Amino acid sequence: MVKHFFQKLPRIFLPGQFSSTLFAFICRYIFRSSHPSDTDRVFVEMARDPNAEKKRTESRKNKFLALYKNCKEEERELYNQINKRDEADFRSKKLYLYYTQKGRCMYSGERIDLDDLFNDNLYDIDHIYPRHFVKDDSIDNNLVLVKKEINAHKSDGYPLADGIQKKCRVFWNELKSGGFITAEKYERLTRTFEFTVGYRNNWKD
User: Fold this and answer.
1) For the chain, what is the HEC assignment?
2) I need a labelling partner for 74 at 20 to 30 A (CA). Which of 25, 32, 89, 203 fits?
3) What's the pTM value of the predicted model, to 2 decimals?
């Protein structure tokens, strides 16, 4: 029913920076009046940003230097580390996420020792949306760097545990406000309701 409803709507192309949260709210508002019982099944898929390829070619090093330039004094060391690195270093997913998260574990907020970053016995890259639910390897929207110990005890479900969300919400908000993480990643981290069957099926289609 949801799919048939939206097939009747005109096709709308939205810019990449358009908030998926806002668009989802609008869709649910429209849909609720005639299908109140199915509102939670509305799934919003954003049109591909035509500038996506261009964005991927932009310098990750310069991006981080700009982000850290006006950070607090205690984070200036991270700026200095970035400044000394080559552009090629930031192709590493772990290193990229390390600086995206201000050198902290995304599920605890605890500092990560850079010397131990590549020790797979200590740190993992986790999928916010679990891989057995949806296949999304987006480093900007769905991947996070976490302590292996925490990840091992975390359930493989969704949403994230209430304890993790309460402990890290202020930290996540700081990252979003500073431009370190996307609004989409923040939404996935803080979302409190489970996947519905319709939501999962839309990802598979």
Assistant:
1) CHHHHHHCCCCCCCCCCCCHHHHHHHHHHHHHCCCHHHHHHCCCCCCCCCCHHHHHCCCHHHHHHHHHCCCCHHHHHHHHHHHHCCHHHHHCHHHHHHHHCCCECCCCCCECCHHHCCCCCCEEEEECCCCCCCCCCCCCCCEEEEEHHHHHHCCCCCCCCHHHHHHHHHHHHHHHHCCCCCHHHHHHHHCCCCCCHHHHHHHHC
2) 89
3) 0.73
